[in-house]
């Protein structure tokens, strides 16, 4: 049976996640959607959702979804698999204060989950009037923006054109890979959004056609600590020895776990005709198959790093020692 598509909706408190979910469900009719809703505290979401098209709503109210994976999400996915004939796709709406990277990891790394469910994209809602305040106050907001494939700037009717442009520049600086849409009241082009994916080769490989500028941005929080967000691209003109690189990839996710928010891109490996998509997810790196290289003599890899206080030269040195000499 074909794996059920899964969409993760995240975003900080008050960004409009449930409103967008409502819109998503309407747009996807007649699809039957299995919803996993996670909020802190006792919350009844049934009344906030469009019931036509919703097959079942499962609530996790014990705390953050990212902290309840072993006992909560995996159990729900197991039950959802048993009911797979009764719905067409799944949507997970995270709590506003969750770091979604643990959820992403489950769908990309767990072989049983990957067999049954296919993570399509991570969608992050952003409140255009409050995003800067949340970025200054909560690291989780930075992580939500960093791991997203799609950023939806909501409530643009509440800010000036100048402010909207500032928010666009801010988000593009933090996550240059993400596709950004602007909208009002949670209304966004769902069909277009669904073409953008976490592990879809055509989505990841678009970075080959983008020219990212290394970016560093300081956010001052209320306790006068700096959140130095760094975004940079590593380019590899030659193939990499993935087997030997694995040790350093493990080092990155363990030693730099609190600093590296997201790594995503593709590399070439020896004697393999396709790009290898490489991306971090919480405590691991995942390699998946990409599209074939068009030119055997031009197999340039690119990885985009997003994190806090990262030094490009450290990672450049780490990766470059695994380049295969021509």
Brief write-up:
The chain has helices at 17-28, 69-82, 101-109, 111-116, 131-137, 139-147, 161-174, 190-193, 201-204, 242-255, 312-320; strands at residues 4-11, 33-38, 54-60, 89-93, 117-127, 150-154, 179-182, 215-220, 226-236, 260-267, 274-281, 284-292, 301-308. The protein is α/β, with parallel strands linked by helices. It has 2 domains: 4-198, Rossmann fold (3-Layer(aba) Sandwich); 203-320, CobW-like, C-terminal domain (Hypothetical Protein Yjia, Chain: A,domain 2, 2-Layer Sandwich), CATH 3.30.1220.10.
Description:
This protein has 326 residues and is α/β, with parallel strands linked by helices. It folds into 2 domains: 4-198, Rossmann fold (3-Layer(aba) Sandwich), CATH 3.40.50.300; 203-320, CobW-like, C-terminal domain (Hypothetical Protein Yjia, Chain: A,domain 2). 31% of the residues lie in helices and 29% in strands. The protein is built from 11 helices and 13 strands. The chain has helices at 17-28, 69-82, 101-109, 111-116, 131-137, 139-147, 161-174, 190-193, 201-204, 242-255, 312-320, and strands at residues 4-11, 33-38, 54-60, 89-93, 117-127, 150-154, 179-182, 215-220, 226-236, 260-267, 274-281, 284-292, 301-308. It has a 7-stranded parallel sheet with strand order 3-2-4-1-5-6-7, sandwiched between helices. Strands 8-9-13-10-11-12 form a 6-stranded antiparallel sheet, with helices on both faces. Strand 10 (260-267) and strand 11 form a beta hairpin. Helix 5 (131-137) packs across helix 6. The longest helix is centred in the N-terminal third of the chain and has 14 residues, at 69-82. The radius of gyration is 20 Å and the shape is globular. Residues 62-70 and 219-227 have low confidence and may be disordered.
């Amino acid at each position: 049976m074909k794996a059920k598509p899964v969409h993760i909706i995240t975003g900080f408190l008050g960004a409009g996640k449930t409103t967008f979910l409502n819109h998503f469900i309407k747009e996807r009719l007649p699809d039957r959607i299995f919803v996993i809703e996670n909020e802190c505290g006792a919350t009844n979401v049934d009344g906030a959702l469009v019931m036509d098209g919703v097959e079942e709503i499962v609530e996790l109210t014990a705390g953050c979804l990212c902290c309840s994976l072993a006992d909560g999400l995996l159990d729900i996915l197991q039950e959802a698999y048993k009911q797979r004939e009764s719905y067409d796709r799944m949507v997970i709406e995270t709590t506003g204060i969750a770091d979604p990277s643990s959820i992403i990891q489950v769908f990309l790394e767990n072989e049983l989950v990957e067999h049954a469910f296919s993570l399509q994209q991570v969608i992050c809602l952003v409140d255009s009037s409050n995003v800067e305040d949340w970025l200054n106050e909560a690291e989780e907001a930075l992580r939500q923006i960093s791991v997203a494939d799609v950023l939806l700037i909501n409530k643009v009717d509440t800010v000036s054109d100048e402010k909207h442009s500032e928010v666009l520049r801010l988000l593009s600086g933090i996550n240059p890979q993400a596709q950004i849409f602007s909208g009002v009241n949670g209304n966004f082009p769902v069909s277009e959004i669904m073409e953008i994916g976490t592990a879809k080769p055509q989505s990841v490989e678009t970075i080959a056609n983008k020219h990212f500028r290394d970016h560093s941005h300081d956010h001052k929080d209320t306790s006068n600590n700096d959140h130095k967000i760094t975004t940079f691209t590593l380019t590899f003109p030659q193939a990499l020895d993935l087997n030997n690189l694995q040790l350093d990839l493990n080092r990155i996710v363990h030693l730099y776990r609190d600093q590296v928010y997201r790594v995503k891109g593709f590399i070439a490996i020896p004697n393999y005709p396709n790009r290898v998509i490489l991306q971090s997810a919480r405590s691991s790196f995942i390699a998946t198959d990409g599209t074939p290289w068009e030119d055997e003599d031009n197999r340039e890899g690119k990885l985009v790093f997003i994190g806090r206080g990262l030094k490009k030269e450290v990672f450049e040195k780490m990766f470059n020692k695994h380049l295969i000499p021509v």
